[in-house]
Amino acid sequence: MNEEPLITAFTRLRKGFLRLASRFLPNEEDADDALQDAFCRLWPRRNQIHSSQEAEALAVTTIRNLCIDRTRKEKVPLVELDAERDAHPTESVEERMEREELFQEVEALIDRRLSPLQRLILRKKEYEEQSIEDIAKELDMQQAAVRMQLSRARKTIRECYRKRHNYEAE
Q: CB 14: neighbour CB atoms within 10 A?
């Protein structure tokens, strides 16, 4: 039995997982429940998980999907992922909807266009606000390689976004 990667990932990254769940769910108790559910769902697959990186990636995906499922089932509005979007109290409903659509479009580009490694690095850097050094240690990579992957991910998203909007403008 190889339970080590799963247990290690959940113990070492619990705070980060809790922050991830809190971005979707309205209160900390729900976020904590989502973490427990994710662990319970992954536990039967513990023998198929061979590294802590794999355990972390599966946990992030499982937690995210559980949170989305809960918000859909309970019809609770998603908590904004970007605090800056909440900092515009004077914007109109149309402006807010437009901002939300743009954010969702970028999220979709991230999910469709980036490699799993680029997605992981981008989310750790931008959403979890981890340093390049911490990401490199966690993923057992050189800092330069993490910077390169992050740069390529940002460039890919930027190019895809610009390409899409240039075509729409014509």
A: 14
Q: How far apart are CA 68 and CA 108, in angstroms?
A: 15
User: Length of the chain, please?
Assistant: 170
Q: Which two three-digit tokens encode residue 112?
A: 């469709």
Instruction: Walk me through the domains of the chain, giving residue ranges and CATH numbers.
Output: 1-79 (1.10.1740), 90-170 (1.10.10.10)
Residue 72, Cβ density class (10 Å: 0-12 exposed, 13-18 middle, ≥19 buried): exposed
pLDDT band for position 148 (50/70/90)?
A: very high
**pTM score, whole prediction:** 0.45
DSSP per residue, 132-170: HHHHHHHHT--HHHHHHHHHHHHHHHHHHHHHHHHHHH-
How many other β-carbons are positioned within 10 Å of the β-carbon of residue 47?
10
Tokens of 40: 């319970």
Rounded to 5 degrees, what are φ and ψ at 57?
Answer: -65, -45
Per residue in 88-97, pLDDT tens? 556 667 777 7
User: What residues have CB less than 8 Å from 93, skipping those under 6 apart?
Assistant: none
pLDDT digit string (tens) for 134-145? 999 988 889 999
How many helices (H) and strands (E) in the chain? Answer: 9, 0
